[in-house]
């Protein structure tokens, strides 16, 4: 059991931080950059991607014994496309306004390399429960970056947060919008595509900075340990 | 009589450091600055002080964070020059916080994040300007009419007030200040002609508007023509002092001239004359003061000619067919991207070596 727990922990760290699909693998950048003009759009696409990622990973893992190696990519793509169709119809039915706002980027989840990347690299070699968990943390890591970037661009660009929450959560959320500052001149750069690239670059830089600080701290700790060991050896 | 020195190499001595060059560029820009202040009021000078302060402060801040020598980098005056160029590019009564965003972005992102002076791929001042232009398109095209045509004459206190609060001392806002004596809202010459053309007027009809009265040529907007000439004069001083080489300014002006001449000859009713394109907007200051930035421009003689001519070409093309009235900043940034390619293919032949292509063929 402890073995399983270790595996799950490794998977979590990999998906959320060390091998984050958006920040480290830089996969699925097209939807990431295109729809993150607001927090809610990012959250919506993040949830849709999470759903597809979990579903596709489980299915690929279940059928992995019967899929011939030569045609595995077409098979994976068809499995992913099936889940994307499901989520597209669901969003069309239940969150119609969000469906309109995300537009072409819902069907384009099929081409999100993060999903086929996980199917190929992990799900096609692992049992379903591990594949499902991997899909979940990878999707969560992707969705968190989408939300972070969306929130950043929304605050800097329009001065609001959670605008259009009713698109995702229904009428109950219509007054969730937080106005951070009021402006007649929205900072269009943040809302337009260049803002996505710049914001993404800043987030990656921040992650690398945190990593380097963490690494130097770990190194300084390990150096002190070495000194102690030497003392014990002498005595 | 030239004094001949006999000594070992190097024989070429640097007589000016970076700071001296940057200061010379600024001295040469003073006539243009004064002309702008004369025609567009105190706002120009207030923006100058504001922009330079923000640029120098941002530079000092980032240098401190990067643990680089602050005093050394600040005394090369490059941040001051960046602030200066942004200040004369933006509308004189732009709200202070927009100037702040533009200057901070130029120094922090376009210059220091790329590694500081000498490492920036793009001209920092133009990056700052473009960030403002695409972020606040309305505010960035709100130029007031030249002071002789202004219905309300803002004095120093008015200009200071409107930049920092949005209203003059007597309570006018920027829209009211833009009214000319004949009661219409003013626009820059380039903007005016662009709008007039979309409304079905011909080019020569649009020149009859008061925006163009008082210029020394039919095509030069009131005030704008004189500002351009003042920058031309300053630019010629820079050439004479050998701060810049002739390649970029001359090929840029040539590119503008040839492209607009061809268009004007194909259809003089919808395409402005070469004089119209040369004397309005940012072409003159761009040719001598902006495109010649030694860091982000091409470095080979042949490459500089290509660089300048292509900027001139794109200025006219974007002005005529694009969505924005002026295009110098966009053109400079486009060509900044092409500089590595241009430099690669225009390497001059080293003395004593054959040209690259010949030696390859012989092998």
UniProtKB/TrEMBL annotation, chain A:
Subunit (UniProt): The complex is composed of six subunits: RnfA, RnfB, RnfC, RnfD, RnfE and RnfG.
Transmembrane segments: 75-94, 100-119, 131-152, 187-206
Swiss-Prot/TrEMBL GO biological process terms: electron transport chain
Topology class, membrane: Multi-pass membrane protein
InterPro entries in the cross-refs: NqrDE/RnfAE, RnfE
Family: Belongs to the NqrDE/RnfAE family.
Protein name in UniProt: Ion-translocating oxidoreductase complex subunit E
UniProt keyword DNA-binding present: no
Keywords per UniProt: Cell inner membrane, Cell membrane, Electron transport, Membrane, Translocase, Transmembrane, Transmembrane helix, Transport
HAMAP family (UniProt xref): RsxE_RnfE (MF_00478)
Enzyme Commission numbers on file: 7.-.-.-
Gene name per UniProt: rnfE
Function: Part of a membrane-bound complex that couples electron transfer with translocation of ions across the membrane.
The species this protein was found in: Alteromonas sediminis
Subcellular location as annotated: Cell inner membrane; Endomembrane system
């Amino acid at each position: 059991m402890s073995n399983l727990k270790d595996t799950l922990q490794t998977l979590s760290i990999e998906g959320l931080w060390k091998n984050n699909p958006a920040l480290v693998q830089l996969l699925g950048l097209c939807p990431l950059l295109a729809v993150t003009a607001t927090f809610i759009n990012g959250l919506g696409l993040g949830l849709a991607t999470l759903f597809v990622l979990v579903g596709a990973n489980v299915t690929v893992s279940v059928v992995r014994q019967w899929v011939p190696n030569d045609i595995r990519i077409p098979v994976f793509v068809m499995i992913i496309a099936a889940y994307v169709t499901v989520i597209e119809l669901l969003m069309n039915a239940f969150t119609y306004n969000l469906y309109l706002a995300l537009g072409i980027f819902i069907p384009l989840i099929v081409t999100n390399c993060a999903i086929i990347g996980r199917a190929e690299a992990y799900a096609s070699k692992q049992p379903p429960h591990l594949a499902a968990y991997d899909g979940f943390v990878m999707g969560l890591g992707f969705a968190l970056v989408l939300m972070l970037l969306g929130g950043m661009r929304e605050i800097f660009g329009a001065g609001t947060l959670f605008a259009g929450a009713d698109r995702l959560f229904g009428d109950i959320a219509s007054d969730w919008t937080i106005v951070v500052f009021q402006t007649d001149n929205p900072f269009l750069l943040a809302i337009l595509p260049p803002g996505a690239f710049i914001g993404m670059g800043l987030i990656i830089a921040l992650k690398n900075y945190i990593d380097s600080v963490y690494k130097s701290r770990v190194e300084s700790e390990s150096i002190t340990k070495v000194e102690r060991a030497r003392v014990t050896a002498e005595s | 009589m030239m004094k001949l020195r006999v000594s070992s190499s190097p024989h070429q001595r640097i007589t000016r450091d970076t700071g001296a060059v940057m200061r010379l560029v600024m001295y040469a820009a003073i006539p243009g600055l004064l002309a702008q202040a004369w025609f567009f009021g105190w706002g120009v000078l207030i923006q100058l002080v504001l922009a330079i302060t923000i640029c120098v402060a941002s530079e000092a801040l980032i240098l401190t964070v990067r643990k680089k020598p602050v005093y050394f980098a600040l005394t090369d005056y490059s941040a001051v020059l960046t602030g200066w160029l942004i200040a004369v590019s933006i509308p004189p009564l732009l709200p202070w916080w927009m100037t702040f965003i533009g200057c901070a972005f130029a120094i922090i992102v376009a210059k220091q994040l790329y590694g500081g002076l000498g490492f920036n791929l793009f001209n920092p001042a133009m990056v700052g300007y473009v960030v403002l232009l695409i972020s606040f398109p309305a505010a960035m095209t709100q130029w007031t009419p030249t002071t002789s045509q202004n219905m309300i004459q803002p004095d120093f206190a008015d200009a200071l007030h409107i930049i920092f609060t949005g209203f003059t001392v007597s309570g006018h806002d920027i829209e009211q200040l833009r009214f000319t004596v004949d009661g219409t809202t003013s626009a820059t010459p380039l903007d005016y002609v662009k709008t007039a053309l979309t409304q079905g007027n011909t080019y020569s009809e649009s020149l009859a508007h008061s925006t163009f009265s008082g210029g020394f040529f039919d095509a030069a907007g009131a005030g704008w023509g004189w500002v351009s000439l003042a920058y031309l004069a300053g630019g010629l001083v820079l050439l004479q002092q050998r701060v810049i080489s002739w390649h970029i300014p001359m090929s840029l002006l040539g590119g503008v001239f040839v492209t607009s001449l061809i268009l004007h000859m194909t259809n003089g009713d919808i395409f402005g004359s070469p004089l119209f394109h040369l004397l309005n907007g940012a072409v003159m200051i761009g040719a001598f003061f902006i495109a010649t930035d030694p860091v982000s421009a091409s470095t080979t003689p042949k490459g500089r000619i290509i660089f300048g001519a292509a900027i001139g070409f794109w200025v006219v093309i974007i002005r005529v067919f694009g969505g924005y009235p002026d295009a110098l900043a966009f053109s400079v940034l486009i060509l900044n991207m092409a500089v590595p390619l241009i430099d690669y293919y225009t390497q001059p032949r080293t003395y004593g070596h054959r040209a690259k292509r010949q030696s390859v063929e012989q092998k």
